[in-house]
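Milestone M4 deliverable, item 7.
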Amino acid sequence: MIHIPYSVLDLAVVTEGDSIREAIQTSRELAVHIEKLGYTRFWMAEHHNMENIASSATSILLGYVAEATKTIRVGSGGVMLPNHSPLVIAEQFGTLATIYPNRIDLGLGRAPGTDQVTANAIREDRMRQVQKFPENIKRLQNYFSSDNSRNKVRAIPGEGTEVPIWILGSSTDSAHLAAKLGLPYVFASHFAPQQMVPALRIYREQFEPSKQLDEPFVMPCVNIILADTDEQAEYLSTSMKQMMMGVVTGERKPMPPPVDDMNTVWSIHQKMAVEQMLRYSFIGSPATVKAEVKGFIEMTGAKELMIASYIYDKYERFKSYKMFADLMKEEINAVSSE
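Output delivered:
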């Protein structure tokens, strides 16, 4: 069954012909929209030096979104912790949690969120910080704890907010860490599906209960593009496929409008690479997507599902999110009536 919470991952994607300001404003409008539809979380991800993504200053954007909404949880999916001082992140998210209590999540990753040249520009000792990733997560937990009040270094605001921490990953390495720390686990199956199945198995088998979490909690991320017909959804999905083709080629340009035939755009090798990346992308009418999502949730044992919808036209994007919420609510109602 698919009666589980559902959430959104947003990157403030810049579409061809629109400005960065418009992309950020659209993200805020989207958060307001999905809050009304019953989504649980609205997360944004840290990326740098990409023309098509405007979510580099993640904590600032989360404040912009939280201010416009009332109940939905707002968080990072994620902050790339090796790019930052744990104390500064504790202060930033502690400030958010102070202004918007019981609504802030902190998802953490260890990847740079950019190319290596830019990663070095962000932090020259980044590789050393990657090795300290587990240690720095524990530092963050301490900064958020009331018990840290006796220490010389304190996060103010932040201390006592107990901001929930999530581990993000796309490999088995992250699974081992999330299990050892007893933290909820988010897998990036929307663009890196290869190691998802073994990673989830490792996480569940090795999980150690913690103060934050008693039992394993998995939230995989998938791509969803819904439209009235399978054909219309496939057409809309060509913008996402072109954007992902840019990941393969290194050309990170604003997301282009859809095209009638992807074979006029990509080579056979690019097609194979993109289709591998987008293995867990569910594209079609509600009937088509419902069956596929149901199978995915049963396969993964997900406790919550996070979705990303890369659609060029913002109104089609908003419509897709509404159709997905309606689909999930239909399933809840069906279960309730049995």
